[in-house]
């Protein structure tokens, strides 16, 4: 229902404005603004303006809303927020405390009679809605309408916001002219001007090209006139070069004739040597066949002899091996029998000695047994002493158990404290890592300040008092959502590059080092005289402002050294700058009436309050607070100090417990030694009580051992007789096997005699073969010499062919004719033509060379012709 009523009211206003503007439209130009209506736009809740057809001037004090009307014209005519140079978000132009705003602009239509009414509804979190004459449309359609009406809000010559004045004054004359043309004549005039500039540039380029072409033509005519004598000289030179060419061709032909004659002679000599080689090979063939045959027979005989010889050697080695094996086997068996006998003798000797030793031990034990006489009184005394030691052992064991429990409790507590120390250490490491992260961020944001911090940390001994590093390294914010307010208040220069000094001499030393020596751009300041408490007393108590939704000052949200907070109170007034919640938006009227509040933060905005000098009316402006960037990882100094104290207390407690642990360990060692002594004394008493029984058992054991030794007695005479019989049997077997080997040796000697006869035959055949080979080598030497002559003749023939082929190719090339690469003889027709052509030329190569040299000398006397003259000719 409310929406229908607002729509009807809007339609009624549109009708009234249309009627009013129709009566006055004849005074306005086409596309001029005849009405502006704003709702919830910036400082205006609702306003409606009717500009005149001529010059319109809006006057008023600062903050009265003059710039708001300019912003409304730009945004209402489809202009981009960056044209205004203020906030980039459309929602920032809506009046504070409202979700939407409206801009309505009526433009004169001198052609069709009905004006254009452009309406733009602004929303905080969504896109704008456009209507044209009450109908929904798009921003693109509105931009097309503005283009047709030649309305250019992005042209500084037509629409100049106060934030763009500096940009307008920096425009060149050409830019001013072009933008003025766009305003006055539209795109058509600007396009014509642009085409005119292009055509003028092309005309100037063509004129320059024409002038250069005319100058070049005149220069060429003068050059041709000076070149006529050189052209005549070139003609005479060409005649001499032609003669030289003809004589050179003749020289090549005469050289070819000599080469072809030499080639024929070399070919004849090569054929003669080749024929003689064939004759020698014919004589050598029968002899080579005979030697080859005898060589084959000799090889067969040698192979047979070698086989028999190898067989005899193998047989000899086998016989020797068998004889040695028989002897070694017999000797090994005899040695084994003798070792067994010797071992039995040693064993019997050891048995006798062991029996004597055991008998002596038995006698000694019996004497010791007889000497022992323990009465009943001694037994009772030993038992009483043993009982006393047992009670002492139990008492010490109980003390050990109690001490062990206490020791274990100390160990457990030490382990727990060490775990807590590690947890605290990790938290401290995290805090220190935050400082390192900020230092790296400072290096990226301001390298000069980072270098100054590094130098300061390395040279602290040069300063008498404390020097505070830049605030990015020194400040921490208690709550993350308050960080953006702290960064907004502090200038970037102070946050990144301001060093605070307690002593002015230290500041002079630091500034001199950084500015003059290292050329670093950093800043320094001394600590204010007022204390932090004095600054706080200047501010209104925060409890008095809670009724406006203000719950703390900026100084309450930040932690840092006292000196830096005093500097911020003096320069940025953080002790008087409150932070408010959503309640302040409903109390805005009351806040503007409170003269103690001039600036405060709420949500993402910083609100500033001012009183008009003329009307005494209050006004508010807001600036968007950017997202935090530098102090995002703040750490509480109180938390760090508390962690360090707890960490040190835990370390001290751990040291005390470790000392107690060492005391307990020493006490345990003492009890352990005492307990060991008691146990040893008990064992001694027990051994003394059981000594007689032990001696009886030992005597019985020794007697049993003596009986065992006596049962193992060995008969040495019997063993010697058995060993002698075994040796005699081994000797008989050895003699039997050796007789068999002797017979084998006799057969071997017979075979050796036959081999000696065969070896004589082989030696005779080898001697005959060597004589035949000697004769063959004589003939081979002769053949080798002939082959060398053949090779030399062939080389001379190849060289002759190459030189003749080269001479033939030169002749063919001089006549511009092709000759196959393998041909060394010119065609007969070509030879006849050349002989006829060069019949009157000298026959000797030397005469031809002399004539060519004369022609070259004449050519040299003419001098060199310029390259450019030769090319043009």
From TrEMBL:
| Gene Ontology biological process terms in this record | double-strand break repair via homologous recombination
**Entries under InterPro entries matching the protein:** P-loop_NTPase, RecF/RecN/SMC_N
> What keywords tag this UniProt record?
Coiled coil
RecF/RecN/SMC N-terminal domain spans which residues?
A: 33-156
The record's Gene Ontology cellular component field reads: nucleus; Smc5-Smc6 complex
Q: Which domain of life is it from?
A: Eukaryota
SUPFAM superfamilies, per database record: P-loop containing nucleoside triphosphate hydrolases (SSF52540)
The coiled-coil segments of this chain are 316-434, 640-789
Q: Name one Pfam family in it.
A: SMC_N
One Gene Ontology MF term: single-stranded DNA binding
Annotated spans, Disordered: 1-24
What family does the Swiss-Prot or TrEMBL record give for this protein?
A: Belongs to the SMC family. SMC5 subfamily.
Q: What is this protein called?
A: Structural maintenance of chromosomes protein 5
């Amino acid at each position: 229902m409310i929406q229908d009523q607002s729509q009807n009211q809007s339609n009624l206003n549109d009708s009234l404005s249309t009627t009013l503007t129709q009566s006055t439209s004849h005074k306005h130009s086409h596309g001029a603004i005849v009405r502006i209506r704003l709702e919830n736009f910036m400082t205006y809740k609702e306003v409606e303006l009717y500009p005149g057809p001529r010059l319109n001037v809006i006057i008023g004090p600062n903050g009265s809303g003059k710039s708001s009307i300019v912003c409304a014209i730009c945004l209402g005519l489809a202009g981009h927020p960056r044209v205004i140079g203020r906030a980039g978000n459309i929602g920032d132009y809506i009046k504070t405390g409202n979700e939407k705003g409206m801009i309505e602009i009526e433009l004169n239509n001198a052609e069709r009679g009905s004006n254009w009414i452009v309406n733009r509804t602004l929303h905080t979190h969504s896109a704008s809605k456009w209507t044209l004459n009450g109908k929904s449309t798009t921003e693109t359609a509105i931009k097309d309408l503005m283009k047709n009406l030649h309305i250019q809000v992005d042209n500084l010559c037509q629409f100049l916001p106060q934030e763009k004045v500096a940009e307008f004054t920096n425009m060149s004359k050409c830019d001013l002219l072009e933008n003025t043309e766009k305003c006055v004549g539209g795109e058509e005039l600007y396009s014509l001007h642009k085409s005119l500039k292009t055509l003028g540039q092309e005309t100037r380029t063509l004129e320059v090209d024409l002038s250069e072409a005319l100058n070049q033509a005149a220069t060429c005519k003068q050059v041709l006139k000076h070149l006529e004598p050189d052209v005549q000289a070139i003609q005479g030179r060409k005649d001499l070069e032609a003669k030289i060419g003809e004589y050179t061709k003749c020289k090549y032909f005469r050289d070819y004739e000599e080469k072809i004659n030499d080639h024929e002679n070399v070919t004849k000599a090569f054929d003669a040597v080749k024929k003689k080689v064939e004759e020698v090979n014919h004589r050598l063939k029968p002899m080579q066949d005979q030697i080859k045959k005898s060589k084959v027979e000799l090889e067969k005989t040698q192979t047979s002899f070698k086989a028999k010889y190898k067989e005899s050697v193998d047989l000899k080695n086998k016989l020797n091996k068998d004889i040695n094996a028989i002897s070694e086997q017999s000797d090994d068996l005899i040695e084994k029998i003798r070792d067994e006998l010797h071992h039995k003798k040693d064993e019997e000797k050891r048995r006798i000695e062991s029996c004597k030793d055991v008998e002596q031990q038995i006698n000694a034990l019996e004497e010791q047994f007889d000497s022992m006489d323990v009465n009943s009184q001694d037994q009772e005394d030993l038992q009483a002493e043993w009982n006393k030691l047992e009670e002492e052992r139990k008492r010490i064991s109980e003390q050990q158990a109690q001490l062990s429990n206490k020791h274990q409790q100390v160990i457990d507590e030490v382990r727990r404290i060490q775990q807590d120390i590690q947890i605290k250490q990790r938290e401290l490491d995290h805090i220190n890592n935050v400082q390192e992260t900020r230092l790296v961020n400072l290096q990226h944001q301001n390298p000069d300040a980072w270098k100054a911090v590094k130098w300061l940390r390395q040279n602290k001994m040069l300063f008498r008092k404390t020097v505070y590093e830049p605030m990015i390294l020194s400040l921490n914010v208690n709550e993350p959502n308050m960080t953006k307010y702290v960064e907004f208040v502090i200038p970037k220069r102070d946050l990144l590059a301001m060093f605070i000094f307690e002593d002015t001499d230290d500041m002079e030393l630091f500034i001199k080092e950084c500015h003059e020596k290292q050329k670093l751009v950093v800043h320094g300041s001394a600590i204010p005289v007022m204390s932090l408490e004095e600054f706080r007393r200047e501010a209104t108590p925060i409890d008095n402002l809670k009724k406006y939704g203000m719950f703390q000052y900026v100084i309450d949200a930040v932690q840092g050294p006292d000196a830096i907070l005093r500097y911020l109170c003096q320069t940025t007034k953080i002790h008087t700058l409150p932070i408010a919640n959503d309640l302040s938006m409903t109390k805005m009227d009351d806040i503007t009436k409170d003269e103690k509040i001039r600036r405060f933060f709420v949500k993402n905005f910083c609100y500033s309050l001012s009183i008009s000098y003329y009307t005494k009316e209050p006004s508010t402006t807001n600036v968007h607070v950017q997202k935090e960037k530098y102090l995002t990882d703040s750490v509480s100094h109180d938390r760090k100090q508390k962690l360090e104290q707890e960490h040190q207390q835990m370390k001290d407690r751990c040291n005390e417990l470790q000392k107690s642990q060492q005391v307990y360990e020493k006490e345990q060692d003492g009890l352990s030694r005492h307990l060991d002594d008691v146990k040893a004394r008990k064992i001694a008493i027990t051994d003394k009580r059981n000594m007689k029984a032990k001696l009886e058992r030992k005597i019985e054991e020794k007697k049993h051992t003596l009986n065992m030794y006596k049962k193992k007695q060995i008969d040495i005479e019997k063993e010697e007789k058995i060993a002698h019989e075994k040796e005699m049997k081994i000797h008989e077997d050895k003699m039997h096997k050796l007789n068999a080997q002797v017979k084998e040796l006799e057969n071997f000697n017979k075979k050796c005699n036959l081999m000696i006869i065969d070896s004589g035959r082989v030696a005779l055949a080898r001697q005959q073969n060597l004589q035949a080979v000697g004769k063959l080598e004589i003939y081979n030497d002769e053949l080798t010499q002939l082959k060398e002559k053949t090779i030399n003749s062939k080389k001379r023939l190849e060289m002759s062919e190459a030189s003749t082929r080269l001479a033939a190719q030169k002749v063919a090339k001089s006549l511009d004719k092709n000759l196959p690469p393998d041909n060394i003889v010119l065609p007969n027709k070509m030879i006849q033509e050349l002989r006829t052509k060069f019949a009157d030329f000298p026959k000797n190569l030397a005469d031809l060379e002399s004539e060519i040299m004369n022609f070259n000398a004449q050519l040299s006397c003419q001098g060199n012709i310029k390259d450019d003259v030769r090319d043009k000719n």
